[in-house]
Fold this protein.
Amino acid sequence: MKWAGDTRIRLMGCTLHVRMPGFDADSWVRRYEELRGRGKNLLPVFERFGRYLLESVDRNFAAEGRPSRWAALSPRYAARKARQFPGKGILEATGQMRTGFWYTASAQTVKVGNKNRWWWIVHQQGTDNLFRRGIHLPRRVILLLQAQDKAVLTRWVRAYLRTGTV
């Protein structure tokens, strides 16, 4: 029998002899280097996840909030919006918020943003003093990593590290 892994450890006056049948150190080192290289460049995973997040944002708009629905419009604003933008959902008067989302991906990160950054942040966080005039806008979370999103990313990273494909 071939003993590729043969290690001797001296410990307090005695020798521990470890043999691992079938262990191929060169193959293990190659596999480690592949994993290490993939771990340094997760661009394929983050490209796919960026697209996935944009789809998630679109699902949030379609449902008007997930997992819980966004706060309703005030009666006064709802009446005005129905006249000016008939049939448009919450946060969709002109459509710029919904269509303004973008992502960039790199080897180590994925970043999601919106062309209407200021309005997105105001709606994402909510405010009680819009324009310093005491106008209340409830928090309406547009971009949110839900448990299922984290599970998808984890599955894709594991697959990529294991096989090199997403």
Observations:
- Residues 5-36 form one domain.
- The beta strands are 5-11, 14-20, 101-105, 110-114, 127-130, 135-137.
